[in-house]
């Protein structure tokens, strides 16, 4: 049942006696002074039974406790201890000096309820509402957003193919033993799966890792065990109700094991199996967190996990919305949803969205144009080549002509397929290109017969041309300079611990990101007067 905070100010509460001691201008002092306005117990009423059970710890205080935990980057156990012994936490929560507010399980249950009922957004929106009350948005009705991403290292263990398959076998075996109400090791022994429940499948094997045949035989034996287990799982499923929880558990574990088999191993002509060469797209890298993906921070640096996608109001530096996308997803994934979320969170229209070149592709520009939205992003550069790039040709879309660097113009074009789309390709006569003084700089073909140099138009050629023209203006340079605010906010989020996920899965990782964004906004609001002055300037 919902427990409510007593509205009467308590004489011996620490915020009455020690606020000045811990500092009114600290994050703890800010929460002590503002918590009554920021969160209200009735906002969380639908998380509790309305007429049964003991009164809960006031959810408004549990919300404050989660923010303190995110700010101090501590575990659930440490958060519980600090609520009991740390004077700063007691002042922020308004507790008496000898008062114990919650147990670790209380904090975990409250967090689970927020995630299940999708209520963490209430905490985040409270930071934006506080900004509105402090006048940070001024009289503006439109926002200018800067968007960017940063890697989040996943919590799941990343293993090689042998251990991944072993983990998949263990997970399915556990579900089957549980459903059949059998002791796990006893059931595994009956099905000759004992080796998967030791200390290490590789460490306890007698494989000669310098011998390719020995490694292949070892992998084949694991694949055979996985295939046997999948048949057992199918037989057990035939005895269960199709929509039951047990049936769903077997399906999920079986699908994971099949995915691991298909992505990492391939049959050989001799009947054995070998590890696939290369890496398949969207490869599952962890069984403990199957949503983790291998991504790249740069061309030479990779990570396993997710990406934080962030939208920031460039005038105030406030984070307007966040999301967690797959680690291998392009930075521009779901960026329109991020813009729409920013509008919902702030109640203001987004006028312009500014991104780096990862957002400057034609498809993203087209998606924004279809929604009547303004996108500012540098057009990605083409790889350096020995010949003239397409950008050195003058493309007149209205006149339907293309002029080459030598000053020759063609109107001849044809339809071709490019990346699965039908586009126009302009061609120059072979006779003209063969006699051209710039031929060696324009094409590397030794002999031009039917036609010379070709120029293929992009499906969004008009939008890209418009963007390239804008890139040469002072206004674009100003946008690039102001976009840096999102990099500063990402750095702040990293300070608050989002580089390493504390949870398995994207939903819980997003919960961590939202809490960090809320703390980042509140700490920014502590200097609201300075922000207002900068915005006015």
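Q: What amino acid sequence fits the structure above?
A:
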């Amino acid at each position: 049942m919902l427990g409510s905070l007593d509205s009467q100010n308590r004489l011996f509460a620490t915020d009455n006696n020690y606020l000045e001691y811990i500092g009114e201008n600290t994050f703890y002092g800010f929460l002590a002074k503002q918590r009554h306005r920021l969160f209200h117990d009735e906002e969380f009423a639908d998380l509790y039974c309305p007429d049964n059970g003991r009164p809960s710890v006031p959810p408004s205080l549990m919300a404050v406790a989660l923010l303190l935990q995110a700010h101090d980057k501590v575990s659930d156990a440490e958060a519980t201890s600090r609520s009991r012994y740390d004077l700063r936490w007691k002042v922020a929560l308004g507790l008496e000096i000898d008062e114990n507010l919650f147990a670790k399980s209380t904090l975990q249950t409250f967090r689970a309820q927020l995630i299940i009922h999708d209520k963490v957004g209430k905490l985040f929106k409270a930071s934006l509402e506080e900004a509105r009350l402090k006048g940070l948005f001024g009289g503006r009705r439109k926002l200018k957003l800067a968007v960017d991403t940063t890697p989040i290292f996943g919590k799941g263990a990343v293993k090689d193919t042998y251990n991944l398959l072993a983990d998949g076998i263990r997970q399915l075996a556990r579900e089957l033993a549980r459903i059949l109400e059998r002791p796990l090791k006893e059931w595994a022994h009956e099905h000759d799966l004992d080796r998967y429940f030791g200390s290490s499948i590789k460490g306890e094997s007698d494989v000669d890792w310098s011998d390719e045949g020995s490694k292949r035989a070892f992998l084949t034996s694991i694949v055979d065990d996985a295939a046997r287990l999948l048949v057992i799982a199918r037989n057990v499923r035939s005895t269960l109700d199709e929509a039951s929880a047990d049936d769903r558990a077997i399906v999920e574990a079986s699908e994971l094991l099949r995915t691991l088999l298909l992505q990492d191993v391939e049959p050989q002509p001799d009947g054995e199996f070998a590890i696939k060469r290369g890496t398949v797209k969207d490869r599952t890298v962890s069984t403990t967190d199957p949503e983790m993906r291998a991504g790249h921070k740069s061309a030479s640096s990779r990570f396993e996990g997710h990406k934080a996608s962030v939208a920031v109001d460039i005038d105030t530096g406030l984070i307007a919305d966040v999301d967690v996308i797959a680690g291998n997803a392009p930075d521009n994934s779901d960026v329109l949803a991020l813009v729409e979320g920013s509008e919902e969170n702030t109640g203001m229209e987004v006028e312009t969205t500014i991104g780096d070149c990862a957002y400057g592709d034609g498809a993203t520009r087209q998606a924004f144009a279809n929604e009547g939205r303004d996108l500012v992003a540098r057009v990605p550069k083409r790889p350096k080549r020995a010949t003239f790039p397409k950008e050195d040709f003058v493309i007149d879309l209205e006149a339907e002509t293309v002029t080459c660097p030598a000053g020759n113009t063609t109107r001849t074009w044809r339809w071709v397929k490019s990346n699965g789309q039908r586009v126009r390709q302009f061609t120059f006569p072979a006779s003209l290109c063969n006699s051209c003084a710039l031929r060696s700089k324009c094409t590397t073909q030794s002999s031009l017969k039917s036609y010379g140099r070709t120029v293929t138009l992009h499906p969004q050629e008009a939008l890209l041309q418009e963007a390239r023209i804008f890139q040469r203006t002072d206004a674009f340079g100003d946008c690039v300079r102001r976009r840096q605010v999102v990099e500063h906010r990402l750095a702040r989020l990293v300070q608050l611990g989002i580089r390493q996920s504390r949870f398995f899965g994207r939903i819980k990782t997003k919960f961590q990101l939202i809490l960090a964004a809320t703390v980042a906004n509140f700490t920014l609001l502590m200097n609201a007067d300075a922000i207002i002055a900068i915005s006015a300037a």
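Q: And what stands out in the fold?
A: The longest helix spans residues 212-237.
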